[in-house]
Design goal:
heterodimer; A: alpha/beta; eight-stranded mixed sheet; 11 helices; about 20% strand; globular; B: alpha/beta
């Protein structure tokens, strides 16, 4: 992942914070009900961003120990300004730097940023007993009415700046082949869940409006015209406007490291 | 004499258009203004008319909707501690705006019948399109001393400042309402920190910052108990409810409220720089907007059995 400029990192961190604000109380029940999470004592939070999600998770589960790794220096610097619970260690590093054996890997909205997934799988086989991978579920994400200026700005930005952004920005639909890929890499898919978050309430729409604006700021800032800003604002104050965000959760088991207890729990 | 009819909880009112025919359309006009919703800004629309939006009512509707959402908890906190409100079954909501607050009230208190009056035709038309609980009748009309009907509570939320005939209202209420709950904006409990410079500049070139207007506001606030006491009411209590919009969700609500207010005042002022500054403000973790509202609770000295007495 190409290091981000400071301004970008600041915007990215703000966006992460709002995304967590929007989705946290919806995601927690799904995560909490995952057997691999329930039994885990040591958890690696891969691509932790500014730690916005990890901080809340660690605070909610003080008996679990978390290691949050974020490879981007600017994002890590922004995140490090916040206070973390004592059971959350936040470091500037990539997964390659993580040694030892850990009960669980959480890769939340991060797989799309990994270009060499083979190397990542090889590392995972060696260091984690289980994993929970979270991706966007594109088919469950929509806004109504549509936002043509916003959509065009994002699509244009993705096309023209793919290298700079250093991401494929694919959703779960494009990652649909991953379970087979994981199986081929020796990680056994052991369950999945889908979250369709209805974010149509007024205060959710306001948050999403800012998330969308920040997406344009990061991906295609030149497109941030007054008309685009007005399109987003008008959508956010339209009481009939609707939106949903889809997330897909995949649970994986590492047969090489998972103990009998974990394997039984996950399979059950 | 003009009759006001209200239904009972669980019954379906006739259409607002029909109900509207029962009240005066020629009632004294109440001047509404977008600045009604701004911190410390309380003047007539005329005083604030720097460059009016061509679609005033639509923009003002947004301001009122956001304001109702912002102040709902604080105002509700006052009402649920008010014996006059808790005991009431019939309520007259005077100057209901777009009905955003009244609809919430009716939904929260389904056993109370609320009749709401709004004199601004365009604002009323917008509000009338919103789905309302069956115990909420939203009528087009303003205060008229000839209004008939008896109510347990007169609710006047943020409207007295627009009513030069408030003494007449108080006298009318003393014969038709067992209690009055009056809310005025409280500038002393209102603040915006840090103050966005473009927003401040917009406020500085509008007429309501004129000392005379501020004096009028303060006079009105001070006058409220005296006006109602002179009409035969007893002040049962007063308190100031403060809403603080901070934290991620609160700041974004404040962001929208400030933008909507500014747009309602002068849409041309909303430059990209203005919007950028407001956006940055909304992501400043130390930023906050507080909105103060002073509530007065008056009891009718003549007692609760007004129908018999009259």
């Amino acid at each position: 992942m190409t290091p981000m400029a400071t301004g970008w990192a600041e915007t990215y961190c703000r966006q992460l914070a709002l995304t967590v604000e929007l989705l946290w109380h919806r995601e927690l029940p799904i995560l909490a009900s995952a057997p691999a999470f329930a039994v885990a004592e040591t958890i690696v939070d891969l691509g932790a961003g500014d730690g916005a999600f990890g901080r809340r998770l660690a605070a909610a589960y003080p008996d679990k120990r978390f290691l949050g790794v974020e490879p981007d220096a600017a994002i890590h610097a922004a995140g490090a300004r916040s206070a973390f619970p004592p059971n959350y260690r936040y470091v500037h590093a990539g997964y390659e730097s993580v040694t030892g054996t850990h009960d669980l890997l959480i890769a939340r909205l991060v797989i799309m940023y990994l270009r060499d997934r083979d190397a990542f799988y090889a590392w995972a086989r060696e260091h984690v007993r289980a994993a929970i991978v979270v991706n966007f579920e594109d088919s469950a994400s929509a806004t109504d009415p549509a936002l043509p200026l916003f959509t065009a700005a994002i699509e244009h930005g993705m096309r023209s700046r793919a290298d700079e952004l250093a991401t494929t920005h694919v959703g779960d639909r494009d990652l649909a082949g991953l379970p087979a890929e994981w199986a081929a890499a020796g990680l056994l898919p052991s369950g999945s869940a889908t979250l369709v978050a209805d974010i149509s309430e007024a205060d959710d729409r306001r948050i999403y409006h800012h998330i969308q604006r920040m997406s344009v700021m990061r991906v295609n800032p030149e497109a941030l015209s007054r008309s685009l800003l007005d399109e987003l604002y008008e959508w956010s104050v339209d009481p009939s406007a609707r939106a949903s965000i889809g997330l897909r959760y995949h649970s994986l088991l590492n047969p090489l490291l998972a103990g009998v207890e974990l394997a039984r729990g996950v399979v059950a | 004499m003009i009759g006001l009819a209200y239904g009972h909880p669980g019954t379906q009112y006739a259409s607002n258009a029909l109900c509207g025919a029962m009240v005066s359309r020629d009632a004294a006009p109440v001047q509404r203004s977008p600045d009604h919703a701004l911190p410390g800004a309380m003047v007539s629309r005329d005083a604030a008319s720097v460059q009016r939006s061509p679609d005033d009512a639509r923009l003002y509707d947004r301001v009122l909707t956001l304001q109702a959402e912002a102040q709902w908890r604080a105002d509700l906190g006052v009402l649920v501690r008010s014996p006059e409100w808790l005991a009431a079954t019939t309520v007259l909501d005077l100057g209901a705006g777009n009905g955003a607050f009244g609809r919430r009230l009716a939904g929260r208190f389904p056993t109370k019948s609320i009749v709401a009056l709004e004199p601004d035709a365009e604002l009323h038309a917008i509000g009338a399109r919103a789905a309302a609980p069956p115990n909420y009748a939203f009528l087009h009309g303003g205060f008229d001393p000839g209004l008939e009907g008896f109510f347990d509570v007169l609710l006047a939320r943020g409207v007295l400042v627009y009513m030069p005939e408030r003494r007449s209202l108080a006298r009318w209420a003393s014969e038709h309402c067992a209690a009055a709950l009056i809310m005025n904006n409280a500038p002393e409990a209102t603040s915006l920190r840090p103050t966005p410079t473009y927003h401040a500049e917009l406020l500085s070139r509008t007429d309501w910052s004129h000392p005379a207007d501020r004096s009028a506001l303060e006079r009105e606030v001070v006058d409220t108990p005296r006006v109602f006491a002179a009409a035969g009411f007893t002040l049962a209590g007063a308190n100031t409810a403060v809403t603080e919009l901070s934290g991620a969700r609160g700041r974004l609500l404040a962001h929208h409220f400030l933008r909507a207010s500014a747009e309602a005042i002068d849409a041309a002022a909303l430059t990209t720089d203005f919007l950028d500054e407001l956006f940055e403000w909304s992501h400043d973790e130390d930023a906050h907007l507080t909105m103060g509202a002073t509530w007065y609770r008056f009891r009718n000295s003549r007692g609760p059995w007004l129908r018999t007495l009259s």
